[in-house]
Amino acid sequence: xxxxxxxxxxxxxxxxxxxxxxxxxxxxxxxxxxxxxxxxxxxxxxxxxxxxxxxxxxxxxxxxxxxxxxxxxxxxxxxxxxxxxxxxxxxxxxxxxxxxxxxxxxxxxxxxxxxxxxxxxxxxxxxxxxxxxxxxxxxxxxxxxxxxxxxxxxxxxxxxxxxxxxxxxxxxxxxxxxxxxxxxxxxxxxxxxxxxxxxxxxxxxxxxxxxxxxxxxxxxxxxxxxxxxxxxxxxxxxxxxxxxxxxxxxxxxxxxxxxxxxxxxxxxxxxxxxxxxxxxxxxxxxxxxxxxxxxxxxxxxxxxxxxxxxxxxxxxxxxxxxxxxxxxxxxxxxxxxxxxxxxxxxxxxxxxxxxxxxxxxxxxxxxxxx
Amino acid sequence: xxxxxxxxxxxxxxxxxxxxxxxxxxxxxxxxxxxxxxxxxxxxxxxxxxxxxxxxxxxxxxxxxxxxxxxxxxxxxxxxxxxxxxxxxxxxxxxxxxxxxxxxxxxxxxxxxxxxxxxxxxxxxxxxxxxxxxxxxxxxxxxxxxxxxxxxxxxxxxxxxxxxxxxxxxxxxxxxxxxxxxxxxxxxxxxxxxxxxxxxxxxxxxxxxxxxxxxxxxxxxxxxxxxxxxxxxxxxxxxxxxxxxxxxxxxxxxxxxxxxxxxxxxxxxxxxxxxxxxxxxxxxxxxxxxxxxxxxxxxxxxxxxxxxxxxxxxxxxxxxxxxxxxxxxxxxxxxxxxxxxxxxxxxxxxxxxxxxxxxxxxxxxxxxxxxxxxxxxxxxxxxxxxxxxxxxxxxx
Lengths: 370, 396
Description:
The structure holds two protein chains of two kinds. Chain A is α+β, with helices and mostly antiparallel strands. Helices cover 52% and strands 16% of the residues of chain A. Chain A contains eleven helices and nine strands. Chain A has helices at 7-23, 26-34, 43-51, 70-82, 89-103, 106-117, 221-257, 269-298, 303-329, 340-352, 357-367, and strands at 123-126, 141-145, 148-159, 166-173, 176-183, 189-195, 201-213, 259-260, 263-264. In chain A, a hairpin with a 2-residue loop joins strand 4 and strand 5 (176-183). Chain B is an alpha+beta fold. Chain B has twelve helices and ten strands. Chain B has helices at 3-18, 44-56, 74-87, 96-108, 111-123, 237-249, 259-263, 267-275, 285-313, 322-344, 358-370, 380-391, and strands at 128-131, 147-151, 154-165, 172-178, 189-195, 201-206, 215-226, 230-231, 277-278, 281-282. A four-stranded mixed sheet of chain B has the order 1-4-5-8. Chain B has a four-stranded antiparallel sheet with strand order 2-3-7-6, with no helix packed on it. In chain B, helix 1 crosses helix 3 (74-87). Chain B is globular. The interface between A and B is large, with 39 and 42 residues.
């Protein structure tokens, strides 16, 4: 299980860091927010990302992808996290691609993967129902009816839900938890965009007697969901690592720039020690994230525990760096004009996505046998 | 078969033939071997194991053969360590000679100093202790005031060192002394080797909160030290002192350090034993949560060690990572003992005698010992200062 990047992954990383710095700085997120952009992301930018091949990292070669792996996509996610870029990377390049590549039959893959890789079709996982991440607690139903299934239920926090061309709905079927491909505009589907604290996309999705054919069902049920959620946790951990690193570096720079009592505030030990502690937490989070990526790509049996570890550490580390970032910036950190607050807001939303620290600790302990 | 595979096979065969079975069990603290003229052994196998390993130079596997070391390549040393861990072999010898002074002499010592001292470190014949801290110089080590005045062929040493680990059981001490009090504090320090048997050297054990006396204060009263026992140049001792601290902070316990890991009791196993189990889970959910938080940090740190090793192997220049190891490892170790005590409840409160198992009594003493981890070898606060300065470039 390698703990350092291959030269190919390093190249992806360098390209992605330049790309987001130049094409999607934090200012881009602010503009999307302030202009009430109906999409909540830039379609032009997404096409460029597709051209760079990032949408195909988790798609097999015979469906137009490169099968480059989670480690590669994590490099892109980390770079996106540095500038808080709002993109469908998680909803589509990770969740959509993984669910269909791992759970789809040949027809489903042929229908959906090429347009996904081309950046022309967006996906959203309609999973959560309660206020806290609980992938096993599903009340939405899929009842068998002539020619297929009838779906009923109410979903929340569906990332990119209001713009997705295809919803992947998790529901209780007669055989347990199952996943269905549902066109975003299918009759009976109501989508309501929610305005979130981190200015990113999420939606409420209601399903009322939505009919789908037999061909809508993905294979794998709860096992598929678990495998893909582990991937999502690791990719999110990478994104959060990027956001934490950026918030931290900006804060350290501020400690060197800002003067009070006639000296740089970075001379104060009360701040130095906390900065050094943040450095340590970022480094151990980085190690956990790299290890989890490698384990997922190699299919190691410790991948699930490492995914819980990576997401759990990323939760705590971004929480720390976001909060300390605002505190150490002082009054200016409380203003909307300054960007540090965007990182703290994103921290809270990213923590809640696919498992907060409580969830991750419980899952880690369970997988480690206690 | 590659050379390394062959080496692994031969090493395995040798260890199986030469490591006494009782030396393949968990090593209690009182059975650690530190060598020296005053060494005492609980079991004869300790000495047999030491002598056999020292004969091959494997108490210091990577040191040059000409000074008695094993002459192994880094890869071979890893193989030896792995095979020892697999069999559960104990460290044959530990101490400050191996972990600190040896590497320092190899780097800064004269040829004569190396020939005189290093083979006796490897064999365990001489035990060394460290004379760094003073009552008035702890974290601010460079303000030390033990004086050494050069008078012809001798230094005359007067002063008072503290936290000299096991000085009363040691044969020699490596000391930081002030040789020029008129210049900036870092520029007047020298590094001196002193024979504990010299007239005027007096170690005095200090009783600690754990009830043990592993540390001493050591007094120097007109001690005459031959000038040839100076390491490096006069007044240039601070550079050597810092280098030696780097060896100390690596926190690597030398060959056989993984014996402890193999026989370790984990906090989660203790929590299950003392708090009970429900469906395979620790029955107390809050305790389980605390232990998971600790274990995740420990796991992420262990992965960080591995990443640093892989980066070093790949030829990446030693990054800022190493600066955090001492801080993070020692804080984790303290948390580990707190988790174990939290699991044990009142069974952790025994001092000695009836009502408690040997393990319970031992863990309680080790818990107290662990509190020194974040003080000795540079406090956690000093480590954080180092990270802030060297890695983050924050202003003084």
